[in-house]
Amino acid sequence: MSARLILVFGLAVVGLLGVSHLKENDPETDGTFLPPCSFHEVTGLHCPGCGGTRAGHALANFRIGDALKKNALLVVLLPFLVVGITLEGLAWVKGRDYRGPRVRLPGGLSWWLPGVIVGFWILRNVPMWPFDLLAPR
Amino acid sequence: MFGQRSISEMEWYYAKHGERQGPVSLATLRSMVVTGEVAQTDLVWRKGMVDWIPARQVAEISGVDSEPSTSPVSSPTGEIRTPQSEVRVAGPVAHERIPNYLVQSILVTILCCWPFGIPAIIFAAKVDGLVARGDIAGAMDASKKAKTWAWVSFGSGMAFIVLYVALIGLGVISEL
C-alpha cells in the first residue's frame, strides 16, 4: 500500500466520521467541532459557503428543503463535489497510471462557474427580497 | 542532400504526460506511434500547424498501420499487457493529464471562505477550454496557477483558524 492510499483512506474515514458527527449535532444549538465561518465572524457578511455546515446537518438528516434554505449553491454543487473528490482522490493515489475520468468543465462554461459563485456571494448579501432568500435562514 | 533533409524533418513535437516533447523526425514519430510510445490520441504539432491535433488525424503519421495499436483502447482489460508487445495502451489524450484543480478550488473557496479561492476557480475553469482549443502551454499555465491559488486559499484559511482558536484560547475575543 502506498503512502498516498493510506492518507486518502485516512481522510475518507475522517470525512465519514465528520458526516456522522454533523448528522447528530445541530450547528445552531451545539457547535462542538463545527466552527463558524471565519469570513462571517470578521466581516459580518455571508461568504459562498456560509450556512454550509447547517445545510450539511439538514442533508445528513434528509431534510433537503431545510438544506436549500441554508445554502442552496452548496446543495446544488454537492453531487458534483462528491464525485469530483472521489475521482481526484483516485487520480492522486494512482498518479500517472490513472486513466479514469476526471471532472471536466467544457470551455464554453469557463466563465459560468466563477460567475455563479461570485454572483451568489454578492447577491446573498443584498438585504432585500428576493436576494435575502439566498442568505442562510 | 540527405543531411539537409533529415534536419528539415526534425520538426515534429508531441505531448506526453502534458509536456511537450521533441523535436523528432517524421520517421521517428511514425515509429513511436507504431510501438505505441506515442498514442494515436496523443497531440502532435509541427511548425505551420495552427493547433495541436491527435496523431491519428495526421495522415503522414497514422498512415502507418494504425489499426492494431488502436484496438486495445476500447478494451477495459487493457491494463494487462502481454510481455512481448510493449504496446502501451493508447490511454487518454496527453492533455487529460493536465489537472484542472476545479474540485479543489471550489472546496477551498467554500470551506475557507476567503476571496483567494476565486482566482483559483477562475484559472481552474479555464484549463479544459484551453486544452480543447489546443493551447497546451496555456492550459498547463492555468493549471499551475489554479493549484497555487488553491494552496494560498487553503493556507490562509488554516492560518486564520489557528489564529482564531489561539485568540479564543487567550480570551481576547471571548465575547464572540
Descriptors:
heterodimer; A: 137 residues; mainly alpha; 0% strand; B: 176 residues; alpha+beta; four-stranded antiparallel β-sheet; 50% helix; disordered N terminus
Descriptive overview:
- The complex is a heterodimer of chains A (137) and B (176).
- Chain A is 58% helix and 0% strand.
- Chain A has helices at 3-24, 38-43, 52-60, 64-70, 72-94, 112-123.
- Chain B has a four-stranded antiparallel beta sheet.
- Chain B is an alpha+beta fold.
- Chain B has seven helices and four strands; from the N terminus they run αββαββααααα.
- Classes of the chains: A mainly alpha (137), B alpha+beta (176).
- At the A-B interface, helix 2, helix 5 and helix 6 of A face helix 5, helix 6 and helix 7 of B.
Helix proportion of residues of chain A, in percent? 55-70%
What structural class is derived from the secondary structure elements of chain B? alpha+beta
Extended strand count of chain B: 4
Number of helical regions of chain A: 6
3D shape of chain B:
rod-shaped
Span between termini of chain B: 83 Å
What would the principal axes of the Cα set say about the shape of chain A? globular
Helix content of chain B: 40-55%
> Using DSSP, what is the number of strands of chain A?
0
β-strand amount of chain B? 5-15%
Return residue spans of chain A where pLDDT drops below 50 for at least 5 consecutive residues.
none
Distance between the termini of chain A: 45 Å
Q: Beta-strand level of the residues of chain A, as a percent range? A: under 5%
Unreliable stretches of chain B (pLDDT < 50, length at least 5) are 1-7, 64-93
Question: TL;DR?
Answer:
Chain A is an all-alpha fold.
SSE layout:
The complex is a heterodimer of chains A (137) and B (176).
Chain A (H helix, E strand, L loop, with lengths): L2 H22 L13 H6 L8 H9 L3 H7 L1 H23 L17 H12 L14
Helix pairs in contact in A: 1-3, 3-4, 4-5
Chain B lengths: L1 H8 L2 E5 L2 E6 L1 H10 L7 E4 L6 E2 L4 H4 L4 H4 L31 H11 L4 H16 L3 H35 L6
Antiparallel strand pairs in B: 1-2, 1-3, 3-4
